[in-house]
UniProtKB/TrEMBL annotation:
The lineage of its organism: Eukaryota, Fungi, Fungi incertae sedis, Mucoromycota, Mucoromycotina. Keywords: Metal-binding, Zinc, Zinc-finger. One of its GO terms (cellular component) is Cajal body. Residues 239-267, 307-340 are annotated as: Disordered. GO terms for biological process: snRNA 3'-end processing. Residues 307-332 have a biased composition (Basic and acidic residues). This is C3H1-type domain-containing protein. It comes from Absidia glauca (Pin mould). It holds the Pfam family CAF1. One of its GO terms (molecular function) is snRNA binding.
Length: 407
């Protein structure tokens, strides 16, 4: 039987290998305390609407017509005789059997930064997105069946899901492996609460809103947590002992948001004098991209932010783009090999997992912040909470009856 790497390596799962890996994958998930996920896809919503219901509809329209290229999954488990965590990292290459659209700028960026489209279309696991008809070919359902088994496992074992700025990731997973996204946000929320009964944590929300971090993009938070863990002499932080639609206001800048903008503007000018790109430092991306004359080196940025002595820096080996800009991800490795410090679905999932484990040692009771997803340009999260005025979708109700017939 095929084996899964249980180190800081990753296992690539393709159409050729998935059948031999189903049992090891599910065994790994059964032993996990948490599961982190991340996705790569062909398009994102270019306009962020003011009202959340409108925003959801706009994003859902994009997700229904575009496709998933890959997803990363990191299973997090506590070492039985130590205070360290063990990470098992997987990357699934996926090949949609339906027609789909692409965002040219998104595809260009992914191609420039190493996403191997030839490998995806040659070796990706076939899947059919949306709600399936009765006559859909069974060979295109292996990922759907795997995700159904994952849902059973995380329900039985009470395993939470971890994401970073993950609303779009979750929507792509729903559309790809469960059903066509519901028309209404309230229905989608009802479905999610039932699908993931142990809840969802969003590390961007935890960083920005709970810990008050001024810079919350994925690569920065990972590098900062890695450095803090090193300072504390930890390989990984210890395991924590604690284990209806929200109506959103218009996208009007609050006093806190205005204050942060003023601070960012002033700090950006100071950083430029030090040779650091202030835009990248704050957001994880800049318009100049790789042609920017200022430094995007996260080690150097952290030295500046944390007050470390100024020194000559070699080119950074840390991740250098932001998960928050869905189209700005850097090259990931292919095949089963070392988990490199650059962007790909498997490494983004791993970084999300690492950040969350570090937050378990810095947030008093992380469970108080469950089911709160970060929303771009809003100071409040999307709260995943059931409402007496909404009910789950018909298609999810049908799937749930198959998964848990006794409920």
């Amino acid at each position: 039987m095929a084996q899964i790497n249980n180190t800081l390596d990753f296992t690539e799962v393709t159409g050729d290998s998935i059948k031999g890996l189903i049992d090891p994958i599910l065994d790994t998930i059964r032993q996990a305390h948490y599961i982190a996920v991340d996705t790569e896809f062909s398009g994102h919503c270019p306009v962020i609407a003011k009202h959340m219901d409108q925003r959801y509809r706009s994003i859902a329209d994009v997700v229904r017509t575009h496709t998933l290229f890959s997803f990363g999954l990191t299973a997090i488990s506590a070492q039985p005789s130590s205070n360290n965590y063990q990470f098992t990292n997987l990357e699934f290459l996926t090949r949609n059997q339906h027609s789909f659209e692409v965002d040219p700028s998104n595809i260009k960026f992914l191609a420039e930064n190493g996403l191997d489209f030839a490998r995806i279309f040659e070796r990706g696991i076939p899947f059919s997105s949306g709600t399936l008809d009765q006559g859909t070919n069974n060979k295109d359902q292996v990922l759907r069946q795997l995700w159904h088994e994952i849902l059973k496992t995380i329900k039985d074992q009470r395993i939470p899901i971890i994401v970073h700025n993950g609303l779009l990731d979750i929507m792509y997973l729903y559309q790809s492996f469960f059903a066509t996204l519901p028309t209404a946000l309230s229905t989608f929320i009802e479905d999610l609460v039932e699908m993931f009964p142990a809840g969802i944590y969003d590390t961007k929300y935890l960083a920005a809103s709970v810990l008050g971090e001024s810079k919350s993009f994925l690569a920065y938070q990972y590098c900062k947590c890695l450095r803090l863990a090193s300072w504390q002499g930890q390989v990984l932080p210890p395991l924590s002992p604690s284990s209806s639609t929200t109506q959103l206001e218009d996208d009007i800048e609050s006093p806190a948001m205005k204050r942060r903008k003023r601070i960012k503007k002033n700090d950006t000018s100071k950083m430029a004098k030090e040779g650091i790109c202030g835009s990248y430092s704050q957001n994880g991306w800049c318009k100049g991209g790789k042609g920017c004359p200022l430094s995007h080196d996260l080690d150097r940025i952290l030295d500046y932010d944390l007050g470390a002595p100024r020194k000559e820096h070699k080119p950074s080996t840390e991740p250098s783009t932001d998960k928050d800009q869905e189209h700005t991800k850097e090259k990931g490795t292919t095949g089963t090999g070392s988990l490199r410090r650059d962007h790909s679905a498997h490494f983004d999932a791993y970084m999300t997992a690492f950040i969350f484990c570090h937050f378990l040692s810095t947030i008093d009771d992380v469970s108080l912040h469950i089911n709160k997803l970060n929303l771009m340009r809003l100071d409040i999260p999307l709260h995943l909470k059931q409402s007496q005025y909404s009910k789950p979708s018909t298609e999810w109700t049908r799937i749930k009856a198959l998964l848990w017939p006794s409920i």
